[in-house]
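Worked example 2:
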Amino acid sequence: MKLKPSSQTEQKPSPERSGRRVQVALPLKVTCWDGDYKPCLDMACTYDISPRGARITGLRGAKEIGDIIAIERGRNKLFCRVVWVGRPDSEFRGQVGIENVETERSMWDAELRDLKEIYDPVVRESNFRHSRLTAGERNRRRSPRYSIEGAAELSSSILQGRTAQGVLKDLSEVGCLLSTNQSFPRGTELTLNLSVANYEFGLKALVRHIDPAAGMGLEFREIRKGDRQTLRFLLGKLAEQELEQSFELEIAEAASSR
């Protein structure tokens, strides 16, 4: 399943992994431009940061995807593009996602060097046995899975500092299925970065089952702080989309039976 574009997401042909992201509040001075290209000064604060961008709150001037803003912190000034704006009726209300348009520069070298990623535990259902369930049975669980396209970057102690690449095949709040050319034994602990549409998730996972035809099933153990809210929002959008598709199919079948 491909996620449909919305005011919350901006689809990209090939989503870029923004890399390490940490939750931290940093005050920013922001310059926006109105319809007459007059600069307007504003203040905002980061919610989380990554080398390529940030999620910020308190920004009033930028209201549209594609708006260019300038952010200043100390002596550093960078131009950024607004890539998503939180809907007023969502938990992302008041939040804006930005990315650096000066591709040769990292936005937060010092901050990311000094800060550590923080992970929260993932609360799992007991008897996590997806391999024994049909697709319909899996989606009747409290943590349904959804087929979706995405990229994965995996690291583990057995890779000795290297990373492996994978392709995401389905996703839930407590696990995922992906295919990769790298072989990992069952029980291997992995650090996982997922790139889905315009979203990035950092997770720690355990290899639960391996099927050469279907892929490798992972159970999430920890999720990067700040990512749980985003993952739930994405899964909610996928549930809405699945319901819409089911409704459209019912209408088509009813029409064909007349």
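Confidence is low (pLDDT under 50) at residues 5-18, 126-140. The domain at 22-114 is CATH 2.40.10.220 (Thrombin, subunit H).
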